[in-house]
Design brief:
Layout lengths: L7 H10 L8 E10 L2 E14 L4 E13 L2 E9 L4 E6 L5 E8 L2 E6 L4 E6 L1 H4 L13 E8 L4 E7 L1
Antiparallel strand pairs: 1-2, 2-3, 3-4, 5-6, 6-7, 7-8, 9-10
């Protein structure tokens, strides 16, 4: 499966929803402590553009600011989905911040080396993508890391 993170299609997708990160759509901000000197600020945004008695149309977005010793060291913006994030201390002593919406759009940020590895599926940027997707999602709830064998399991829900 092709990674669309550096594609023109993904750049257009991000531009299409960038307006939602404006102050006018800001809902709230929560800080979650990950370690003694590491936390994540989760900024929530929402644009409700059409409502009816039984159904609402809205776009919820999140901006994740990873803060180390009072300085933002990494930022990630997510559109739609049910976002997750997690801190993992690897057996090689590297620290990782894992963040995303689902298996179609997520990032693994190596805090120790300041390196991001991001994956964006074609299904995120192309509504007409062919394949077995059928507008179904599998949301990641947690990454379960076993430092004894360096394996990761992913727990989630549809």
């Amino acid at each position: 499966m092709r990674n669309y993170v550096n594609s023109i299609e993904y750049e257009k997708y991000r531009e299409r929803y960038e307006y939602i990160f404006d102050k006018a759509y800001f809902i709230n901000c929560k800080e979650v402590e990950l370690t003694e000197n590491l936390s994540v600020l989760v900024e929530n945004y929402n644009h409700t553009y059409k409502t009816s008695k039984n159904y609402g149309h809205s776009i919820s977005c999140q901006k994740f600011n990873l803060v180390k010793s009072d300085k933002v060291i990494y930022q990630l913006k997510m559109v739609f989905g049910k976002p997750f994030f997690q801190y993992i201390k690897h057996s090689n002593n590297d620290e990782y911040f894992i963040c995303g919406n689902d298996i179609l759009d997520f990032s693994v940020f190596n805090i120790s080396k300041n390196i991001e590895n991001r994956f964006v599926s074609e299904y995120i940027v192309n509504d007409d993508a062919k394949g077995y997707f059928n507008n179904e999602f599998w949301y990641i709830k947690e990454w379960i890391y076993n430092p004894k064998n360096n394996l990761v399991a992913i727990n989630g829900q549809d």
